[in-house]
Automatic annotation (TrEMBL), chain B:
Cellular component, GO, one term: plasma membrane
Coiled-coil region list: none
Keyword annotations from UniProtKB, A to Z: Amino-acid transport, Cell membrane, Membrane, Transmembrane, Transmembrane helix, Transport
Transmembrane stretches, start-end: 12-38, 58-82, 94-116, 136-158, 188-210, 216-233, 240-260, 266-285
Taxonomic lineage of the native organism: Bacteria, Bacillati, Actinomycetota, Actinomycetes, Streptosporangiales
Localisation per UniProt entry: Cell membrane
Family, similarity comment: Belongs to the binding-protein-dependent transport system permease family. LivHM subfamily.
CDD domains given in the database record: TM_PBP1_LivH_like
Protein name: Branched-chain amino acid ABC transporter permease
Automatic annotation (TrEMBL), chain C:
The species this protein was found in: Planomonospora parontospora
Record Gene3D superfamilies: P-loop containing nucleotide triphosphate hydrolases
InterPro entries (alphabetical): AAA+_ATPase, ABC_transporter-like_ATP-bd, ABC_transporter-like_CS, BCAA_Transport_ATP-bd_LivF, P-loop_NTPase
Top-rank taxon, per record: Bacteria
Signal peptide span: none
Protein name: ABC transporter ATP-binding protein
Transmembrane segments: none
Length: 357, 293, 240
């Protein structure tokens, strides 16, 4: 495949913006305000993250538990989308079965808690590792070929998973699923259960975001971008394509698995029908609309996946699907960088106005 | 032995349906290089159109040609409106657009006709032919006959008509096709229309066996993908052979492999896809070399 | 030059931002063979592509009074412009006969097509022997014959040949040019041929033009250009 140059041409805006925003417009007359604007522009990525984190820590003390729960789910989806973003946005591969890896993480955690009374937090690394291993196993045959086959294989996995979960009833609880206790907030925190879950999800989200960013800035990230932008050239340059693509798939499966693990903590219940193909497709829709290839994309996608269905559901049972479908197509036509791309564009023009101000 | 043959026959009946959807997938892939993930949903939508006609009082065999005509026009329209803007875009973009189309068509059908299941009339008479200890239901015979007829018609179209020759020219080399005067854009739309029509046949055939509901084709699509992968994504004949093989394999696995049973049969297409990718990525009849990474 | 069959005036063309032709003026008489000579990268292939609608153009192109500029290739094929492209554009998975019939895709006169199939096979007997064979299995020279044969199936008013000699043995090339000449003499087909091998081109052509950096720098009868010292030095490889 030729690599989604167009889909992902823009996407690095989130990181590029730091260079774009470097002080160039400092005219002689630009006084103190100019210096402030310069400082803001130079560090605006970091400032935005800090502000976002501050708000994120403040919110659970202001919202009713149901809304805290919703935000917790946004974070869970964001972690899964982070993985999908790595694969689709950065490696240019497509997965229609990320819900399956999410499910592996969710069930992994559920089974560990159900069978061995494992402490909640300890289940996450194990569940994530399991998803990583599965990603590696399925990635090997699919990824070395044309990008399309990964989409086929992952879709087939997603379809196969539900009956598989139902079959191994003794372990998975079959169609009835498994019901589990939620992690109790330690007394010293003074937090309510919903708040504690929220902060756990937030912590996982922050760690995975840092991990993903580290990955993308390392040699691996550069190799992935090379693969995405021009496979042939990347190969000539000596990038071991299949190795990096398989690894990208495994990493992205791992993130989905981690998200699934947190999902189980938060919901306290797993059943096969929660992890149907619909989940996989919803995740893909989320990352496409959120913004392929940018670090903000998963978060925006998480908000989208969480709130758009619940809002549009009131109109009609089918409305979320109609909205998802139309938005995916529309994004591909007009804004391949998704919501994140639009936000970055908006931020750029705001900054321009500020500087000119 | 008779029991085994009986299973093979059942498998062929199921396989013929997979074959027809796989045929639709392969048609589009040959002309445009696109794998249309929405193909199953388009077939489902066509089936609802057929249901609407019969609900309005038309006999099935009158509703069918109308449905096929609507599907053909719909397929062409979708190519013009949805696919044309991303023509030539990276494959990832196009795949995502077809996935968007998948979601949209699925939901639109649910919106129009609700997610409640509907009965779809069986076009074939109840009963079966018995010979040599084997029972072949009229329904199975009918499905095989219809898919055979579709194959035959497509063969005639491609081998013996000018339109078909133009379509094959576009599939082989769009630039040269344009140079000799083939209207490539129109031909691509024609390809989508044709694929939607063939897909509609599969939907109409499968609906009486399952129930008509918006998610009806989701499972079938996976089998069709396996069939197309097995046969080779650029080989219409391969799609049919692949469909029959997958159908038989699925039925036999369900009947004779205790572990698989009826509920895990949907693992068969996954296994088929993985095996083909490992052993013969271009499929049994695929000519084009598969791009290796 | 009111008698000209093909007139090109101030033709500009290019790919994206890269402009290749910078105002080409050209006139070809009816029934003439016109050779376009020039170094690599001069824009010869682009000129042919511009004439057959494969690249966007600015400027005027008229064929027997009909404006061609801006029309897509399939429309130009219907107007009788046949382009034998660089690399031949063979439909490799199709049979030789199907390739030839595709050349007549825009025609509706069934009897005429059958007669032309016969005629092309008479020009290229090697194709007749391979009608049922898959075109991809032909040798390079055979594929070039097929490409020209396919173009003739259109009964073209204007035949555009892009480097017919490329990659072929000298004997095969000579044969090809002999056939082009025969076709031109018997059917009065107007031909524009782009050719690296200036000897060959000037032998077969009536008139020739030298294209350099996207502009025509020299025009004249083939005989005159053959005698031209500068052409001789640059393209014929010897001093006069």
């Amino acid at each position: 495949m030729s690599g989604p140059a167009e889909t992902a041409g823009e996407p690095m805006t989130a990181e590029k913006s730091e260079t774009v925003g470097k002080p160039v417009a400092a005219g002689p007359a630009a006084g103190r305000r100019g210096a402030l604007v310069r400082a803001v522009t130079a560090h605006r990525g970091r400032l935005a993250v800090a502000a976002l984190l501050a708000v994120a820590c403040y919110l659970p003390f202001q919202l009713v538990p149901f809304h805290v729960f919703q935000l917790t789910m946004v974070l869970v989806y964001a972690v899964a989308l982070l993985g999908l973003n790595l694969l689709v946005g950065h490696a240019g591969q497509i997965s229609l079965g990320h819900g399956a890896f999410f499910a592996v993480g969710a069930y992994g955690t559920a089974i560990m808690i159900d069978r061995w009374d494992a402490p909640h937090l300890a289940t996450l690394p194990v569940a994530a590792a399991a998803a990583f291993a599965l990603g590696l196993a399925f990635g090997l045959p699919a990824v070395r070929l044309h990008g399309l086959y990964l989409a086929l294989v992952t879709l087939a996995i997603a379809v196969f998973l539900v009956p598989l979960l139902k079959r191994f009833e003794s372990v998975t609880g079959g169609s009835m699923g498994l019901t589990l206790g939620k992690p109790a907030p330690p007394a010293w925190t003074g937090l309510a259960e919903d708040q504690w879950l929220y902060f756990l999800a937030l912590a996982v989200a922050v760690v995975t975001f840092l991990l993903a960013r580290g990955l993308l800035r390392s040699r691996v990230g550069r190799a992935l971008h090379a693969v995405r932008d021009d496979e042939a050239a990347a190969e000539v340059m000596g990038v071991r394509l299949s190795f990096h693509k398989t690894l990208a798939f495994a990493w992205s499966a791992m993130f989905a698995g981690a998200a699934g693990s947190v999902y189980t903590w938060v919901i306290g219940f797993v059943s096969p029908d929660s992890f149907s193909v619909t989940l996989s497709i919803t995740l893909l829709a989320g990352i496409v609309v959120g913004g392929l290839g940018s670090l903000a994309g998963p978060l925006l996608g998480g908000l989208f996946v969480m709130f758009v269905p619940s809002i549009s559901q009131d109109v009609n049972e089918a409305a979320p699907g109609v909205v998802f479908g139309l938005l995916i197509i529309a994004v591909m036509y007009v804004a391949p960088a998704g919501l994140a791309g639009l936000a970055a564009r908006l931020a750029r023009s705001t900054m321009r106005i500020l500087r000119k101000g | 032995m008779a029991g085994f043959l009986q299973q093979v026959i059942e498998g062929l009946g199921a396989g013929a349906i997979y074959a027809s959807l796989a045929l639709a997938l392969v048609l589009i892939h040959r002309f445009t290089g696109i794998v249309n993930f929405a193909q199953g949903e388009l077939a489902m939508f066509s089936t609802y159109v057929a249901w609407q006609f019969t609900a309005a009082g038309l006999p099935f065999w009158a509703a069918l040609p109308l449905t096929l005509a609507v599907s053909f026009a719909g397929g062409m329209l979708i190519e013009r409106v949805v696919i044309r803007p991303v023509e030539g875009a990276p494959e990832l973009t196009v795949v995502i657009v077809t996935v968007g189309l998948f979601i949209f068509v699925n939901a639109a059908a649910g919106w129009i006709w609700s997610f409640l299941i509907k009965d779809f009339p069986n076009p074939f008479p109840v009963g079966a032919v018995e010979a040599g200890g084997l029972t072949v239901s009229h329904s199975t015979l009918g499905v095989l006959a219809v898919v055979g007829a579709v194959m035959g018609l497509l063969y005639l179209l491609f081998r013996h008509t000018k339109v078909g020759l133009g379509m094959r020219a576009v599939a082989a080399d769009p630039v040269s096709a344009r140079l000799v005067g083939v209207r490539v854009g129109r031909t691509l739309a024609l390809g989508w229309g044709l694929a939607a029509t063939v897909g509609a046949v599969s939907g109409v055939l499968v609906a009486p066996l399952l129930f008509l509901e918006p998610n009806m084709m989701g499972g079938v699509l996976i089998y069709a993908f396996a069939a197309a992968t097995l046969g080779g994504f650029d080989s219409p004949g391969g799609a049919v052979v692949g469909g029959l093989v997958v159908g038989v394999a699925e039925t036999l696995a369900g009947a004779y492999v205790g572990f698989v049973g009826s509920d895990l049969k949907v693992g068969v297409p996954l296994a088929v896809i993985l095996c083909v990718l490992l052993l013969r990525p271009q499929g049994l009849f695929g000519r084009a070399a598969v791009e290796r990474a | 030059m009111s008698g000209d069959f093909l007139t090109v005036t101030d033709l500009h063309a290019g790919y994206g931002d890269a402009r290749v032709l910078h105002g080409v003026d050209l006139a070809v008489g009816r029934g003439e063979i016109c050779a376009i000579l020039g170094p690599n990268g001069a824009g010869k292939t682009t000129l042919l592509r511009a004439l057959s609608g494969m690249v966007r153009v600015r400027g005027g192109v008229r064929l027997d009074g009909t404006a061609l500029a801006g029309r897509p290739p399939d429309a130009l094929a219907r107007l009788g412009v046949a382009h034998v492209p660089e690399g031949r554009g063979t439909f490799t998975p199709l049979t030789v006969e199907e390739n030839l019939r595709l050349g007549a895709f825009t025609r509706r006169d069934r009897d005429g097509i059958e007669a032309d199939l016969e005629r092309v096979c008479a020009y290229f007997p090697v194709l007749r022997a391979r009608l049922g064979q898959v075109a991809g299995s032909l040798s390079g020279g055979e594929q070039q014959m097929l490409a020209i044969g396919r173009a003739l199936m259109l009964r073209p008013r204007l035949l555009l040949l892009d480097e017919p000699s490329l990659g072929l043995a000298p004997l095969v090339t000579a044969e090809l040019f002999r056939i082009v000449r025969t076709v031109n003499e018997q059917e009065r087909t107007t031909v524009v041929v782009v050719e690296q091998n200036a000897h060959l081109a000037l032998d077969v052509a009536h008139r020739a033009h030298v294209l350099e950096s996207g502009r025509i720098v020299l025009s004249g009868s083939a005989a005159r250009l053959r005698a031209d010292e500068q052409v001789a030095r640059s393209y014929l490889g010897y001093r006069v």
